[in-house]
Amino acid sequence: MAAPRKDNVKDIIIETTAALLQTHSLDDVSLATIAKAAEISKGTLYYHYKTKEDILLDITDRYLEQQWNDFILWTEDKNKDTSMHRLIKYVVERNVSNSGTRMHLIYNACIGNEAIREKLVERYTKFQKIISKKIEERIGKENADYIAWLLLIVSDGLIIQKELLNPHIDVGTFISQTDEFSKSIRP
After folding, report:
1. Distances (CA, A) of 178 to 39, 62, 85
2. Positive or negative, the Cα torsion across 71, 76, 77, 80?
3. 9-19 residue pLDDT tens
4. Which partner from 26, 44, 61, 187 sits 20 to 30 angstroms from 117, CA to CA?
5. Whole-Å CA distances, 146 to 50, 73, 143, 149, 154
6. DSSP assignment of 121-178, as one string?
7. Do 45 and 139 touch, CB atoms closer than 8 A?
8. What is the mean pLDDT of residues 144-163?
9. Exposed, middle or buried: residue 49 (CB in 10 Å: 0-12, 13-18, 19+)?
């Protein structure tokens, strides 16, 4: 008798791999490990994905798409305070909150995974443009592009410091200080 069929196998594989990447590097996770953790056969896994990198690309798509959708929903919610300082805090806080996934993406892009690098650069550019547009709506065009890139770069720097467990920087305090500082930005 065959094992019961699972619906949304790709979702199960993506979620399982993402969970494994919270505590392991991509190099330390094999396809067999993923199949076992997902409670599927290796054959089923290979049917959907030939390599770990293919799974990471789908995780990348899902992660970046969710981040994009959340940002759009938040900035367009008329019931929320989306003033300039809140927008800055939101971008930095949200980018840093899921640092594990982001570090895997950055690391794999930097060591030569061209597909992930291209996808990240494409998404960075897309995020920068929409963040810049939202900043422009709040304080005008001058410096909007610069501030948007600054937020993305600061976020990545904080992710690195967080993952390094740097005892000399408290990420939460830094974000609060950035929020206070950004209140002085005027149109």
Report:
1. 44, 28, 9
2. positive
3. 999 999 999 99
4. 44
5. 40, 23, 5, 5, 12
6. HHHHHHHHHHHHHHHHHHH-STTHHHHHHHHHHHHHHHHHHHHTT-TT--HHHHHHHH
7. no
8. 92
9. buried
Closest CA to 154 of 103, 79, 91: 91
Give the largest CA-CA distance in the chain: 69
Whether the Cβ atoms of residue 24 and residue 72 lie closer than 8 Å to each other = no
Distance CA 53, CA 92 (A): 27
Place of tokens 């971008």: 91
CA distance 114 to 128: 21
Across the range 135-145, mean pLDDT stands at 89
What's this model's pTM, rounded to 2 decimal places? 0.76
